[in-house]
Amino acid sequence: MKHVLSIAGTDPSGGAGAAADCKTFCAHGCFALNVITAVVSQNTQGVRGYMNVTPELIASQIDAVFEDINVDAVKIGMVSVPATIGVIADKLKQYKPPVVVLDPVMVATSGQRLLVPEAEQTLRDILLPLADVLTPNLPEAEVLTRRPIRSFADMEAAARRIFDMGAKAVLVKGGHRMEDATDILYDGRGFHYFKGKRVESNSTHGTGCSLSSAIAANLANGMSLSEAVGAAKKYVFEGIYHAELIGKGHGPIHHFYQLYKRAGLE
Ligand SMILES: Nc1ncnc2c1ncn2[C@@H]1O[C@H](COP(=O)(O)OP(=O)(O)O)[C@@H](O)[C@H]1O
Ligand SMILES: Cc1ncc(COP(=O)(O)OP(=O)(O)O)c(N)n1
């Protein structure tokens, strides 16, 4: 069994952050490890506030995992402030995990910032170059490239620019498009389109967290990058499509649909 580590913030309502990451790893047959960067008060209706974990305690959590357990892949989510980013970058350089998937979480769908504006440059300069795959949504790709994105051509240009900043591959996610939910992957050689129908649903809380975690798990399980992204996209699509309504706002996806289906429990 592969061991996959999430470095992320919390969500007590279970839809995003560390909870979504760990459910996703388990749904992919991986052993879930997690390091917490921030304790977040949030639910399906929005973020109420958060407290950052100190850099010392983040470092100590990462050491506790790596000194004890072989880590096959790391997924990074909410990193909130420059000090958090700095300590994670130092630890990635120290332990050199074989796979790093970075979801550059900036603003929750409900509108609250999860990365302070002054950390955007730090993320771009010191964390992004350590990523094997970076998975920005459209607003995040706009912030990273400082250019508006309105079309597939703009998504391709953004992916190429972010690749040139040092990420080894970039998946620009299209979940915020009106027309469809097509994501575009650039790996320095060419563009791969992952075409997706848009599901009209309120169960989209944590889709970005789940997608990046599924990519990390699939890579740990030995898939190629394009196979990993394709399977992760299917996982999230089915998770949205088959979600149970939970909460009064934007609810979580169904993480175990594929497992239930295989077990005849749908
Ligand atoms: N309504 C939807 N229907 C189908 N797929 C979606 C929908 N919303 C998001 N996705 C997919 O979920 C993944 C996460 O996308 P996105 O919403 O852009 O990220 P984030 O959650 O980081 O804002 C992408 O693969 C995207 O295409
Ligand atoms: C702790 C934490 N991390 C990330 C997010 C954002 O989740 P994401 O999947 O990008 O999208 P939404 O949940 O905002 O739709 C979060 N809310 N909390």
From TrEMBL:
It catalyses: 4-amino-2-methyl-5-(phosphooxymethyl)pyrimidine + ATP = 4-amino-2-methyl-5-(diphosphooxymethyl)pyrimidine + ADP; 4-amino-5-hydroxymethyl-2-methylpyrimidine + ATP = 4-amino-2-methyl-5-(phosphooxymethyl)pyrimidine + ADP + H(+). CDD domains: HMPP_kinase. GO terms for cellular component: cytosol. Transmembrane segments: none annotated. Keywords: ATP-binding, Kinase, Nucleotide-binding, Thiamine biosynthesis, Transferase. InterPro entries: HMP/HMP-P_kinase_dom, PM/HMP-P_kinase-1, Ribokinase-like. This is Hydroxymethylpyrimidine/phosphomethylpyrimidine kinase.
